[in-house]
């Protein structure tokens, strides 16, 4: 290893970024070799060594609210030079908001953000980038009409000197045109210094492409809109890294990638880690997080709930609870004799306080009484294979829970059932007919209703206007009026507020309204997306009771997408667990409730 290829090694691993050609020998492999090929020993040493290095990023009491909701609440941590920290947590926990605050895409309400002891809190994204912070984005952002090389070269634009002689004027609106004119002139007429700088940038682009040589090496002059999703993400990582940042922020860099693609990106990130790069990572794939990270920060509700060694954090009870939910013993009174057609009773207290479950429904009976069936359904978003051969059944008069971690394909499955997302292949059978090609309106008329994530009531409309919007496909006015009164009888709180604007009601009241609005279409099946999100524990109990009542009193089938597994399984009859767009596990809810493989699907590594 020579001085012009990497910085001098400290504590047994190289520090700093690449300053010359990429090494012919992988520094990660070299580091492993020093520890007898044992990745655990290397990771332990690296974790201890980086804590002796200077702090690159210091965050103190960082807070951000959106319309009164605290998305990030008093978050504090330090990131040392050469350290890799990952932030994990369920949907809405504040992970991406934290990244956006650090990178200048959002301004904090309060708190400190220092990079190398210089405050960057409240600075614009461009000013933060000038101070050595580079990032990628959650949904992947490349310029489709530019080539791979041109996209990567843009990452170095802020560090150009000869081609941007008046770049310091860029921050002054009245003088910005001077810099723009000078850049345009030098792009047309190249002086000797400009040519040398352009050649230097081209060399740097080559270094970045070589990191993904097998994937991008032959695509350098292709427009990025022609690339696969995974290759666009690789291009974005290369663009962020070309400026040799002090701090690299990666927001879900492997989102939408399959297992082999994820493994390849992990290898590249381990390469950067072995070179001493400082990385803050937001990622949902826990196995990648564990393999790469020195430390892990777990967030929920805007707070840090655990931090430390990756294995310790993912096994921490509060982290498992954040992902799976807290087990609850619900007491829901049944009004229909359904014990023979349900896969599980709600938890019943025995004298000794333990929960007792009813026998599971036989799989043959489950299939015979199916109301909705998906058979080997595939869905693509461009190049992303979002659902892969997904098959599931929702029986008549049963609650089926669709479980899985972030970005597992749950919401895509629901959108596909509702006709909002089209299938690439496969069949959707509902009530004995093929509805794969039917538009959403026809599915609603046929008896499929939805309670969307975050309730999605019409805030400027009254409660009654919201309820009537749920019956927009119906023409039987007298029956609609009767159903309206039934909704007020079922949800007395809505009757009290029938003239109130929906946006002024509490979260629990809005959830009641969303339920009642769905019932106004007289559905046979209701698809619910995260019905307990953002509700207090007491309201969660009320909402779960209402969902059980839809099945027990009205005989309505429910497909419930829920991130908190134990909450969903506490009232469900059957469950499916999605991971990376595939059904990984399914069975009676009473069995899944105690199955450690459910935790593994969320957090990995369960024993």
How would the blueprint of this fold be written?
Blueprint: E1 9-10, E2 13-14, H1 27-34, H2 39-50, E3 55-66, E4 69-80, E5 84-88, H3 95-102, E6 110-115, E7 118-119, H4 125-130, E8 133-135, H5 148-154, H6 176-188, H7 192-211, H8 213-216, H9 229-241, E9 247-251, H10 259-274, E10 279-282, H11 286-292, E11 295-300, E12 303-308, H12 310-315, H13 317-324, E13 348-349, E14 355-356, H14 363-368, E15 370-381, E16 384-395, E17 399-403, H15 410-418, E18 425-430, E19 433-434, H16 440-445, E20 448-451, H17 463-469, H18 477-490, H19 492-496, H20 507-519, E21 525-529, H21 537-554, E22 557-561, H22 565-569, E23 574-579, E24 582-588, H23 589-592, H24 596-603
Parallel strand pairs: 5-10, 5-11, 8-9, 9-10, 17-22, 17-23, 20-21, 21-22
Antiparallel strand pairs: 1-2, 3-4, 3-6, 6-7, 11-12, 13-14, 15-16, 15-18, 18-19, 23-24
Structure description:
This protein folds into 4 domains: 1-130 and 245-324, P-loop containing nucleotide triphosphate hydrolases (Rossmann fold, 3-Layer(aba) Sandwich), CATH 3.40.50.300; 133-244, no CATH class; 376-447 and 523-607, Rossmann fold, CATH 3.40.50; 459-521, no CATH class. It is built from 24 helices and 24 strands. The chain is 37% helix and 22% strand. The protein is of the alpha/beta class and 607 residues long. The longest helix has 20 residues, at 192-211.
């Amino acid at each position: 290893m020579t001085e012009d290829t990497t910085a001098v090694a400290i504590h047994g691993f190289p520090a700093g970024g690449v300053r010359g050609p990429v090494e012919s020998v992988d520094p990660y492999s070299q580091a492993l070799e020093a520890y007898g090929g044992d990745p655990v020993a290397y990771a332990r040493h690296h974790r201890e060594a980086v804590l002796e290095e200077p702090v690159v990023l210091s965050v103190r009491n960082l807070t951000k609210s959106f319309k009164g909701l605290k998305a990030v609440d008093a978050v504090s941590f330090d990131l040392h030079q050469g350290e890799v920290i990952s932030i994990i947590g369920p949907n809405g926990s504040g992970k991406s908001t934290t990244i956006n605050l650090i990178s200048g895409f959002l301004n904090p309400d309060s708190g400190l953000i220092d990079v190398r002891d210089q405050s960057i809190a409240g600075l614009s994204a461009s000013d933060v980038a000038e101070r050595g912070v580079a990032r990628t984005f959650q949904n992947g952002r490349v310029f489709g009409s530019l080539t791979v090389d041109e996209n990567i070269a843009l990452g170095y634009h802020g560090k150009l000197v000869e081609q941007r002689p008046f770049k310091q004027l860029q921050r002054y609106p009245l003088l910005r045109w001077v810099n723009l004119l000078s850049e345009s002139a030098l792009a047309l007429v190249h002086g000797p210094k400009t040519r040398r700088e352009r050649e230097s940038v081209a060399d740097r682009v080559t270094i970045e492409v070589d990191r993904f040589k097998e994937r991008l090496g032959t695509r350098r002059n292709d427009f990025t809109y022609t690339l696969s999703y995974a290759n666009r993400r690789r291009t974005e990582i290369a663009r962020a890294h070309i400026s040799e940042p002090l701090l690299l922020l990666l927001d879900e860099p492997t989102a939408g990638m399959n297992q082999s693609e994820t493994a390849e990106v992990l290898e590249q990130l381990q390469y950067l880690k072995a070179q001493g790069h400082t990385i803050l990572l937001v990622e949902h794939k826990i196995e990648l997080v564990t393999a790469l990270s020195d430390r892990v920060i777990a967030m929920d509700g805007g707070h840090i709930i655990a931090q430390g060694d990756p294995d310790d954090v993912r096994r921490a009870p509060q982290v498992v609870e954040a992902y799976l939910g807290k087990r609850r013993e619900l007491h829901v009174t049944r009004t229909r004799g359904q014990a023979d057609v349900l896969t599980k009773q709600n938890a019943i207290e025995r004298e000794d306080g333990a929960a007792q479950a009813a026998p599971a429904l036989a799989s043959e009976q489950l299939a015979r009484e199916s109301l909705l069936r998906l058979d080997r359904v595939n869905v693509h978003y461009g190049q992303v294979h979002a659902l892969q051969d997904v098959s599931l059944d929702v029986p008549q008069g049963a609650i089926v829970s669709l479980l899985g971690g972030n970005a597992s394909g749950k919401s895509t499955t629901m959108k596909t059932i509702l006709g909002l997302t089209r299938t690439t292949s496969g069949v959707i059978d509902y009530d004995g007919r093929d509805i794969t090609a039917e538009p959403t309106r026809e599915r609603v008329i046929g008896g499929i209703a939805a309670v969307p994530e975050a309730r999605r009531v019409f805030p400027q409309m009254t409660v009654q206007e919201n309820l009537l919007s749920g019956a927009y496909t119906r023409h039987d006015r007298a029956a609609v009026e009767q159903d309206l009164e039934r909704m007020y009888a079922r949800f007395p709180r809505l009757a009290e507020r029938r003239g109130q604007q929906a946006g002024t009601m509490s979260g629990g009241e809005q959830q009641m309204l969303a339920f009642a609005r769905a019932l106004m279409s007289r559905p046979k099946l209701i698809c619910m997306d995260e019905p307990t999100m953002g509700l207090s524990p007491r309201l969660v109990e009320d909402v779960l009771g209402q969902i059980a009542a839809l099945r027990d009193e009205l005989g309505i089938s429910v497909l419930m997408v829920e991130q908190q597994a134990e909450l969903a399984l506490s009232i469900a009859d059957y469950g499916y667990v999605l991971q990376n767009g595939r059904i990984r596990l399914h069975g009676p809810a009473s069995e899944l409730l105690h199955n450690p493989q459910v935790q593994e699907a969320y957090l990995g590594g369960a024993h």
